[in-house]
Predict the structure.
Amino acid sequence: GTLAEFIHKRGNSLLDEETILHFFVQILLALHHVHAKQILHRDLKTQNILLDKHHTTLKIGDFGISKILSSKSKAYTVVGTPCYISPELCEGKPYNQKSDIWALGCVLYELASLKRAFEAA
């Protein structure tokens, strides 16, 4: 299943810090690997993070709108899910790997609170 489904099934039962950190570190390391290959995911969200049946291993999925950058280039196309997109994307400004890090922060918030950091209107 997805991390979003896992969070939804929790209801109001918060995750303990150890579990949050275990999940977060896996996502962080996977994102680091992707960024080291000059790839922007551009749609990192709990719905695109896959969770194994034992709820121990996470993988980033859905690279459908990802983009390969040259070493110092930036992307300009506004893509992604509104609740997870960075301020520079909202403003139509160029962006880079830092926008994925913003989305990662939104995922961390969701892990800790079981709620999205932002809601789209």
About this structure: The mean pLDDT is 89. The longest helix spans residues 17-36. The CA atoms of residues 83 and 120 lie 6 Å apart.
